[in-house]
Write a structure and sequence with these properties.
Elements lengths: L1 H23 L7 H15 L3 H4 L3 H8 L9 H13 L7 E3 L4 E3 L2 H4 L8 H7 L6 E3 L4 E5 L6 E6 L17 H9 L4 E5 L8 H8 L7 E8 L12 E5 L9 E6 L6 H10 L4 E5 L9 E5 L5 E5 L1 E4 L15 E2 L4 H5 L4 H9 L2
Parallel strand pairs: 5-6, 6-9, 9-10, 10-14
Antiparallel strand pairs: 1-2, 1-12, 3-4, 4-5, 7-8, 7-13, 11-12
Length: 347
């Protein structure tokens, strides 16, 4: 009888752990090949922009898997995975470890860093009564050479390390717009704007809207196949609060990214807004954060964002109606050509 009980317990343990394996799946593969495959497979099923960027992801796998070896160290593995993700040219795709950080758009964006300095604008262009409000997110004032023209700089669309906290700063825009009401026209500067929350975009953009307009459509990846997307969701700019609807010049550059680009699309839907400067970065999608078994983390773009004509600007950015570039030599001498052009042509 004791022998039968022992056999029964042994069979029970075997069945129990076999059942656990059915429900929980096999243990995660922590080998270099397992980590590489885990990243590739997640992007294969959930990345939203392969067709936009003209990328064959299986070909990318075949190119980089040959560099994976069982005895490679973490630094070597990180380098191969980074190179693979770099093929996406996506500033919303990151790979992060305790010893390194990689941004997929970095090898492209570093070629397009444009000269910009808020200190130069304050010292060389603005009257001395300029002010900085909204936790430092808004700078506003008027110009020495054209005091009838107002200036508002927006540094971002989220404040604080945790974007869901301390967002009351946006309410300062109403007082800023009220202060600018006596000007004849306005320059709205979002160069270097690193983005933030879509809700903050809509709140601030509404203060510069004269008409209710849909300005972007968003489809979210919802299945493993390349064309598995949700139905489109429209985002709308709706006039609200204290508003400025006189002539506006909107200035962007290559460091205008993410929510800054959503804001650009919203403002471009308004007839009283002219877009100048240089093209935006080209990174619109929501990025989800994932974690690997070895402690690394990465972000994956899961949306396809277009304007209302169906044009997707991922990887290319939004091109202004009037393209003006800042020259490094002129800038070093104190000249902001993009800003001077906006001042010279605004009504």
């Amino acid at each position: 009888m004791k022998c039968i009980k022992t056999i029964f317990v042994s069979v029970f343990i075997l069945v129990f752990f076999s059942t656990c394996n059915v429900f929980l799946g096999p243990d995660p593969d922590n080998s270099p090949q397992g980590i590489f495959d885990s990243i590739w497979n997640d992007f294969d099923k959930n990345y939203a922009l392969f067709d936009v960027k003209g990328i064959n992801w299986k070909t990318i796998y075949n190119t980089y898997v040959t560099n994976i070896f069982s005895d490679m160290n973490d630094s070597e593995l990180f380098s191969v995975c980074s190179d693979m993700l770099g093929e996406l040219n996506d500033a919303h795709v990151n790979l992060m470890s305790s010893f390194d950080y990689f941004n997929s758009g970095s090898k492209f964006n570093t070629l397009n860093v444009e000269p910009f300095s808020l200190d130069l604008i304050k010292s060389n262009y603005l009257n001395s009564d300029y002010d900085l409000v909204g936790e430092g997110m808004f700078l506003y004032g008027t110009f020495k050479t054209k005091p009838s023209v107002g200036y508002i700089f927006i540094s971002g669309f989220a404040y604080g390390k945790t974007t869901g906290v301390n967002q009351d700063w946006i309410k300062a825009i109403d007082n800023v717009v009220a202060k600018m009401s006596s000007t004849d026209s306005l320059i709205l500067d979002i160069r270097g704007n690193r983005g933030g929350l879509p809700g903050n975009v809509d709140y601030i953009a509404s203060r510069f809207a004269s008409d209710k307009k849909d300005y972007t459509q968003v489809r979210t990846k919802n299945g493993p196949n390349q064309n598995d997307f949700s139905s489109p969701v429209n985002y709308t700019i709706i006039p609200a609060g204290a508003r400025y609807t006189k002539s506006i010049m909107l200035i962007t550059n290559a460091q205008t990214i993410s929510a800054g680009e959503w804001f650009t699309l919203a403002l471009r839907s308004q007839n009283h807004v002219v877009h100048t400067g240089s093209s935006t970065c080209g990174a619109f999608s929501l990025a989800l954060e994932r974690f690997l078994i070895n402690g690394w983390a990465y972000n994956i773009s899961v949306q396809k964002v277009t304007d209302m004509q169906g044009i997707c600007y991922e990887g290319t950015g939004i091109t202004p109606e009037h393209i003006i570039l800042n020259d490094e030599i002129e800038f070093a001498a104190g000249k902001d050509a993009q800003l001077e052009y906006a001042i010279s042509i605004i009504n």
